C-alpha cells in the first residue's frame, strides 16, 4: 500500500495498522491539496455541498491519483445515516448504504465524512475490505458489528484475523448532545456535564468497542489521534463550521492485478 509521512504529504494519511500490507490501498483524506475556495477549502471530496461540481471532481481526481487509483475504479454510496451494507463487485455510485464491502481487486470503496466516524477494515486472509460511515445513528445501530457479520456470511471472514482503523471524527469533548440522543448510548460512551447540562458522546470508543465485541483483537485496532474539531485546520467539521464546509473521504481497496 502507499506510504506517507503525515508531515510531508498533507493530502492524506495512511493508517499505521495497514502498513506493510501488500497491494492494500487505504487512506483518509485531509482538507489540504485541493482547488475548492472557502468555505470548502480546499480538498472537498463530497458532492453533497454547494461547492462547484468541477472543483469536487478535480479534488477527487487529485486525491485518488495520489493513491494510484483511477476515479472509474471507485465505489461510493449516497449515505443516509442508516445501517445498510452493500457487497460490491463493480465500481459505481450507489444509493442508501452506509457501508460497502468487497473482495474484488481493483474496486476502491470509500465513505464520506465531516464529523461522523469512518471505519476501515481489512482481512489479510480472505483479502476483503470494508468502508463504514458511522454517525451517531449508525453507531447505536451497530453498523460495525453488522458489517463483520456480513463479512463472515459473504466471504468467510473471521473477525480475529481482521485489521481495523477507527478514523478521524468529532471528538468526545466536542460532541455535545441532549438526552434524546444520549439515551441511545451505553453509560460507558457518554458523560454528563452538569455545568452545561449536556451529555458528551465518545463515538470513537463506541465503535472500537463494537469491533472488539465482534471479535476483532484489541491489538489489531487503531484509533485516529486526530479530531475534526480540535484539528479543524486539517479536517472538515460540519458542526464546528455550521454546515458550510467540505467532506473528507476514507477509502480502502485491493490493488488490481
From TrEMBL:
Pfam families: Cu-oxidase_4. Keywords: Hydrolase, Metal-binding, Transferase, Zinc. The keyword ATP-binding does not apply. The keyword Isomerase does not apply. CDD domains: YfiH. It catalyses: adenosine + phosphate = alpha-D-ribose 1-phosphate + adenine; inosine + phosphate = alpha-D-ribose 1-phosphate + hypoxanthine; adenosine + H2O + H(+) = inosine + NH4(+); S-methyl-5'-thioadenosine + phosphate = 5-(methylsulfanyl)-alpha-D-ribose 1-phosphate + adenine. Belongs to the purine nucleoside phosphorylase YfiH/LACC1 family. This is Purine nucleoside phosphorylase. It comes from Dyadobacter sandarakinus. The lineage of its organism: Bacteria, Pseudomonadati, Bacteroidota, Cytophagia, Cytophagales.
Amino acid at each position: 500500500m502507499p506510504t506517507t509521512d503525515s508531515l510531508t504529504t498533507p493530502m492524506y494519511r495512511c493508517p499505521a495498522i495497514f502498513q506493510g500490507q501488500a497491494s492494500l490501498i487505504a487512506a483518509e483524506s485531509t482538507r489540504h491539496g485541493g482547488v475548492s475556495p472557502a468555505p470548502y477549502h480546499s480538498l472537498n471530496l463530497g458532492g453533497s455541498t454547494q461547492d462547484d461540481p468541477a472543483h469536487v471532481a478535480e479534488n477527487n481526481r487529485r486525491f485518488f491519483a495520489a493513491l494510484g487509483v483511477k476515479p472509474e475504479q471507485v465505489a461510493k454510496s449516497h449515505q443516509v445515516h442508516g445501517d445498510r451494507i452493500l457487497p460490491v463487485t463493480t465500481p459505481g455510485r450507489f444509493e442508501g448504504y452506509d457501508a460497502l464491502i468487497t473482495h474484488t481487486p481493483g474496486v476502491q470503496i470509500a465513505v464520506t465524512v465531516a464529523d461522523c466516524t469512518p471505519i476501515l477494515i481489512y482481512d489479510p486472509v480472505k483479502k476483503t475490505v470494508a468502508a463504514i460511515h458511522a454517525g451517531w445513528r449508525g453507531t447505536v445501530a451497530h453498523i460495525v458489528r453488522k458489517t463483520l457479520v456480513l463479512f463472515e456470511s459473504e466471504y468467510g471472514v473471521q473477525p480475529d484475523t481482521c485489521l481495523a482503523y477507527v478514523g478521524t471524527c468529532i471528538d468526545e469533548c466536542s460532541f455535545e448532545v441532549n438526552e434524546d440522543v444520549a439515551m441511545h448510548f451505553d453509560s460507558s460512551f457518554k458523560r454528563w456535564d452538569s455545568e452545561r447540562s449536556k451529555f458528551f458522546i465518545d463515538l470513537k470508543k463506541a465503535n472500537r468497542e463494537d469491533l472488539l465485541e465482534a471479535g476483532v483483537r484489541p491489538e489489531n485496532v487503531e484509533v485516529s489521534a486526530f479530531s475534526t474539531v480540535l484539528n479543524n485546520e486539517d479536517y472538515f467539521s460540519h458542526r464546528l463550521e455550521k454546515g458550510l464546509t467540505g467532506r473528507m473521504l476514507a477509502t480502502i481497496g485491493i490493488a488490481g492485478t
